[in-house]
Protein: enoyl-CoA hydratase
Organism: Chitinophaga agrisoli
Amino acid sequence: MQPEHIIVHQQAATHVAHIQLNRPQALNALNLQLMTELKTALQTLDADEQVRVIIISGNEKAFAAGADITQMAGKSAIDMYNIDQFSTWDTIKKTKKPLIAAVSGFALGGGCELAMICDMIVASETARFGQPEIKIGVMPGAGGTQRLTRAVGKALAMEMVLTGRFITATEALQAGLINRIAPVELYLEEAVKLASEIAAMSPLAAKMAKEAVLKAFDSSLEEGLHFERKNFYLLFASEDQQEGMQAFIEKRAPAFKGR
Ligand code: HXC
């Protein structure tokens, strides 16, 4: 079935796929259907050998203004428990390929959390990041208190979560939340440029390196170092390792295949 709230753009030549959130009339509010479509698209692209890096974007006005408040408003705690919307997020988190969020305009609540579940964030000058759930009587539920705090530190995270204040792209860059800022007419191009640079590397090495960096967030240093070493050794079972090192010795560009 064709998705209704997302658009998937795929160019085999570049190995970069792009999922665009597409509920512009609601500032891309993340209703359950959109999140299910996003999860399914990510699973498909993660399994597609032609795809090496995935970009998630919204539009110029909004990456996503959060979970859909109208859909949540009348729910009871038991409804929320039964719907279990965060299981979708658990699946998204398992995406092995590098994910880049291309953010313009609002990235609020679940929108900010979705950007933060990605591995890198490219923002337009108009991007605004915030966790305003406190203003509607709740709090972040999809990683906002954890990923934001790890990215920007306690002081700013506490302020954003407790006051709902939005931060600008410049403040987000200074705080370490995002990777780079581009003019609004170029931010998507900038995200594609970054994605293409990564897509030229060994896709196996990229997946295993991503896995190892993420390990730093939920393991001790010793465990993380051990995990890193195992992945490093494992890559010596790949053709890409032989190709990469041989190409260096032969002073030519490597042609990685993902095997
Ligand atoms: C449902 C939303 C929405 C949302 C905006 N819209 N955000 N609908 N859920 N999160 C809708 C509006 O109702 C409106 O629809 C249309 O999008 C345009 O929004 P406006 O408010 O008219 O635009 P503007 O005046 O420019 O203000 C933009 C805004 C504001 C500052 C982003 O919309 C806003 O504060 N939105 C809510 C942000 C928020 O609280 N997010 C956290 C949600 S809780 P109509 O039909 O009137 O035109 C959350 C929990 C996460 O994310 C849990 C994990 C998933």
